[in-house]
Design goal:
- It is a single chain.
- The chain is α/β, with parallel strands linked by helices.
- It has two domains: 190 residues, Vaccinia Virus protein VP39 (Rossmann fold, 3-Layer(aba) Sandwich), CATH 3.40.50; 66 residues, no CATH class.
- Strands 3-2-4-5-7-6 form a six-stranded mixed β-sheet, covered by helices on one side. Strands 1-11-10 form a three-stranded antiparallel β-sheet.
- The radius of gyration is 25 Å and the shape is globular.
């Protein structure tokens, strides 16, 4: 028997004699069960696909899905968000509210609907353009955060790119959570991973007008001096009409190709060609799944760290 082994046995034996009793403390994970959600301003909304275990109560858009996305599962259409009354959430209560196409006025309007709700949502997820993070009147400005706090909601934000959670479209959203638990925290997202856009593009049927011809090189002003991403090894741009470099030449990316890259099932669109506005506002399916499957937010439950006073003395 080695000297080190003898010393270890001696230390353990004497330590056990010195300790008469000890106290075990635990911090139980808090959880809240969610069953329903509603969406507004998410364009070609695929939240129902991402959160299949929850019930979608309503969606708010300028047009119903049967006109813009015929294959979308049936869901109650309530019209455009600007036309909803201040008591709207009393007739359509939800546990989670997902909002897009926001500005300061619309965010304030939704806050008023939440305040007047008899059963207000317990979690509000807002998708903003990343530039709003630095805005003095943006979603994390002192004014808006204070107003939501007075209504009983804490505010937490995170930047999330679809390529960090398995997506192919390179777009970063400012994701803002308004939560009643007030101690929800985002995880550390993975770094960006480039996934080639090639598999999301049309194999055939590209209109000739989409290609940039040498004799008719009308590049958008914003892309004159920028190299076009290669389809074989670069991520997909999120702006409709962006230039991409294919094996057949440089061309503009099509709206339905971006929609496919964002996770819209091909069967949902059918023969309808999506508008650029809907595609631009569309939140990627991977973003929705990422916010759901993180270590603190899951489908059906939101997990949060307990406050210090919840630990038993």
């Amino acid at each position: 028997m080695s000297i080190l082994h003898v010393l270890n046995l001696y230390t353990a034996d004497n330590f056990s004699k010195d300790v008469d009793n000890y106290e075990a403390r635990s911090a139980p994970t808090q959880s809240t069960t969610y069953t329903s959600f509603g969406t507004a301003g998410l364009g070609l909304d695929t939240t129902k696909e991402a959160w299949a275990t929850l019930t979608q109560v309503f969606y708010s858009e300028s047009k119903p899905f049967d006109q813009i996305c015929p294959g979308h599962p049936s869901t109650t259409f309530v019209g455009h968000m600007d036309r909803l009354s201040v008591s709207f959430l009393n007739t359509s209560p939800v546990d989670i509210l997902l909002l897009g196409d926001l500005d300061t006025r619309r965010d304030t309007d939704w806050l008023q609907r939440v305040i007047h709700a008899q059963r207000p949502p317990r979690l509000v997820l807002e998708f903003w353009n990343e530039e709003a993070l630095l805005s003095e009147a943006g979603p994390v400005s002192k004014k808006l955060v204070t107003e939501w706090q007075e209504a009983g909601y804490g505010s937490t934000c995170s930047l999330l790119n679809a390529t960090q959670v398995g997506g192919v479209v390179d777009r970063t959203w400012l994701l803002v959570a308004r939560h009643t638990c007030k101690n929800l925290r985002w995880p550390e997202w993975h770094r960006k991973v480039v996934r080639p856009m090639q598999n999301c593009l049309r194999p055939t049927g590209i209109p000739w007008v989409a290609y940039i011809r040498p004799e008719n090189n009308h590049r958008p002003q914003s892309q004159i001096n920028l190299p076009s991403p290669r389809t074989e090894w670069e991520s997909m741009p999120h702006i409709p009409g962006s230039l991409i470099e294919t094996s057949s030449g440089v061309r503009r990316i099509l709206n339905d190709e971006i929609a496919r890259g964002l996770g819209v099932p091909k069967t949902w669109l059918g023969e309808v060609y999506p508008s650029g506005q809907l595609v631009r506002r569309r939140v990627a399916l991977h973003d929705l799944r990422g916010s759901r499957s993180s270590s603190h937010i899951r489908t059906g439950r939101v997990w949060s760290r307990p406050p210090p006073h919840s630990m038993k003395p």
